[in-house]
Design goal:
Strand order of the largest sheet of chain B: 4-3-2-5-6
Number of domains of chain A: 1
CATH class of chain A: Alpha Beta
CATH architecture of the largest domain in chain B: 2-Layer Sandwich
Oligomer: heterodimer
CATH superfamily of the largest domain in chain B: Aconitase, domain 3
CATH topology of chain A: Aconitase, domain 4
Shape of chain A: globular
Largest sheet of chain A: 7 strands, mixed
Largest interface: A-B, 47 and 57 residues
Helix content of chain B: 25-40%
Low-confidence stretches of chain B: none
Number of strands of chain B: 18
Number of domains of chain B: 2
Shape of chain B: globular
Structural class of chain B: alpha/beta
Strand content of chain B: 15-25%
């Protein structure tokens, strides 16, 4: 179960998720402190733990557009965020899958802040309203990376297998 | 097949591929900047617990350029740069461009002017503007640091879905105050910031054919602002001419699309009536004619970046500013895209023109564009910039506004201190 803590519109850029001025900080263990740094209240409630880990944010189209900075994915991963959007920008989507962030593409999603969501197979169930919404599956090329737990274990397996030959 | 299909067929040793196929293409150039610090971290993580010694697959195909925060703005950045320098030495990476005036500059300009790219190459970079190199007819796209760690390990990109292609045909003739920057802003405004998400833009038409490489680099650079994976301009005589001028001696082979190539969409543009354009706050697809903001006060003018910091951009600006002054109440910053361009501009007298006009000449780098190093905006300030993004907070302050434009609009507006359309035929 994930509680919706924030709703965004279209074209939320990686600068909004993780402002450029914090890009010298790169390690996934350190990036969460700057998550949505320019959304002061959201940032503070994430840092203080007032918003529990595993909460959900919901956005419209083209979430994560802009830069290739992986901090935008790792900063959200640090809060085990469930990120639901009508669709995602390509590099952000790939980075998120690579670092194990849970992205859900759901074009018809309807939620209010505070609603409780649950993932049920190929649907997002809004337990507060009782409505459910269809999930668009990830690009097929990416599902195997999710199944492996991220790109690092996926690559490691290929590396190890190749040296056994 | 489209250009990207042909490139990916070759990079996977197949006769033909089609959009939607999942492939693992081998990589010809793998570029990183300061975020190589994170790539190194992830690369070492891949090898963790395997008992295998970490070793990059091919040091000659890796390029690392320091450009985002040069010289370092903080001890944290300097320490990252030191870590990268040590890695470069230990792994014998020769295409390393340090903070030096005899080899440095913005990564995308360095890859272009050092002749590292060829038509048909698969190019990946840990920077979204890696699309720039599509101007050479390569398939060039941005990836994240973890994905780059995979490339450094295996020499290929895993699980790439062959993208669909949008054909963009550009005909007509530019007015004398209209430039490739106006064209790409117009296109992004027309198809939107997500209009080409997961797709490739492939450029054709007489305007592209007659466009020098410097302009083509602008189009491919900003293809990503329409969401495109890549922005490809098929190789031709201009591609070969540019590479030859930049020291490449081998024969250049072009990759061109088949006559029956399958496009998911065709966009036709005639530039005869195109006027100077602005991308207005806070999205790049919020595009309007310059005249719609005529007279708006500007606090900071920026000319430079991987988009518009090349010698002909500086020439346009210098011609406009020659003998004139930057308006008081407005500051102007010039960031040449590389040190070679800086020195060329010095020889040609452009730097003297800028300095006499009151503009501040900065060292080549990206810092101002993304708000990480120099040139930050104050609360409520307005910037007019030749860079490529105007997202909220982009130039270091979420309470400021960034408008994007061509170098001609930027230079003309510097003199008046307000947004001003350049006169036709003046240049």
């Amino acid at each position: 179960m994930a509680k919706v803590i924030y709703k965004f519109g279209d074209d939320i850029s990686t600068d909004a998720i993780y402002p450029g001025r914090y890009m010298a900080t790169v390690l996934p263990t350190e990036t969460p402190q700057f998550c949505f740094a320019d959304y002061t209240e959201l940032n503070e409630k994430l840092k203080s733990g007032e918003y529990a880990k595993g909460s959900a944010i919901v956005a419209d189209n083209n979430f994560g557009c802009g830069s290739s900075r992986e901090q935008a994915a790792s900063t959200l991963r640090g809060y085990e965020m469930l990120v639901i959007a009508k669709n995602f920008a390509r590099i952000f989507l790939q980075n998120s899958i690579n670092v194990g962030l849970n992205l859900i593409t759901c074009p018809d999603i309807e939620v209010n802040i505070g609603d409780e969501l649950e993932l049920k197979g190929d649907k997002v169930l809004n337990k507060t309203t009782g409505k459910s919404f269809e999930i668009i599956p990830l690009p097929k090329a990416r599902q195997s990376i999710v199944d492996a737990g991220g790109l690092i274990p996926y690559t490691r397996k290929i590396l190890v297998d190749s040296t056994k030959k | 097949m489209t250009v990207v299909e042909k490139i990916l067929a070759k990079a996977t040793g197949q006769k033909s591929v089609k959009a939607g196929d999942v492939l693992e293409p081998s990589v010809d150039v793998a570029m990183s900047h300061e975020n190589a610090a994170l790539v190194i971290n992830q690369f070492n993580e891949v090898y963790q617990g395997t008992g295998i010694e970490p070793k990059v697959w091919n040091p000659d195909k890796i390029a690392i350029i320091f450009d985002h925060r040069v010289p370092a703005e903080s001890s944290k950045t300097a320490t990252n740069q030191k870590k990268i320098r040590d890695f470069v030495g230990a792994n014998n990476i020769k295409r390393f461009h340090d903070i030096r005036s005899d080899e440095g500059g913005i990564c995308h300009q360095i890859l272009a002017e050092y002749g590292y790219i060829r038509p048909g190459f698969v190019v990946v970079g840990t920077d979204s503007h890696t699309t720039t190199h599509g101007a050479f007819g390569s398939f060039a796209f941005g990836i994240g640091a973890t994905e780059m760690a995979t490339v450094w390990t295996l020499g290929k990109v895993l699980n790439v879905e062959v993208p669909e292609t949008i054909k963009v045909i550009v005909n007509g003739k530019f007015s004398s105050n209209v430039y490739p920057k106006d064209l790409i802003l117009h296109l992004i405004g027309k198809i939107s910031a997500q209009g080409a998400n997961f797709k490739v833009l492939e450029f054709h038409g007489e305007v592209i054919k007659n466009m020098p490489m410097s302009g083509r680099l602008v189009l491919s650079n900003m293809a990503v602002e329409a969401g495109a994976t890549a922005g490809i301009i098929p190789g031709d005589d201009e591609t070969a001419f540019y590479l030859k001028e930049h020291g490449v001696t081998e024969k250049i082979e072009y990759v061109t699309p088949d006559a029956d190539a399958n496009y998911c969409q065709v966009v036709e543009i005639n530039v005869d009536d195109l006027v100077p354009m602005l991308a207005c706050p806070h999205t790049v697809d919020n595009v309007k004619p310059v005249t719609s903001f005529k007279g708006k006060h500007v606090d900071q003018i920026v000319i430079g970046s991987c988009t518009n910091g090349r010698i002909d951009d500086l020439e346009i600006a210098a011609n406009i500013l020659n003998g004139k002054k930057v308006a008081h109440g407005t500051r102007m910053l010039i960031f040449p895209a590389s040190w070679n361009i800086y020195k060329d501009a010095m020889k040609k007298g452009y730097l003297e023109t800028f300095a006499s006009a009151g503009a501040v000449i900065m060292n080549p780098g990206c810092g101002c564009c993304l708000g990480v190093h120099q040139g930050a905006l104050g609360d409520g300030e307005v910037a007019l910039s030749t860079t490529n993004r105007n997202f909220k907070g982009r130039m270091g302050n979420p309470k400021a506004e960034v408008y994007l434009c061509s170098p001609a609009v930027a230079a003309t507006s510097a003199i008046s201190g307000e947004i001003t359309e350049p006169a036709k035929g003046e240049l």
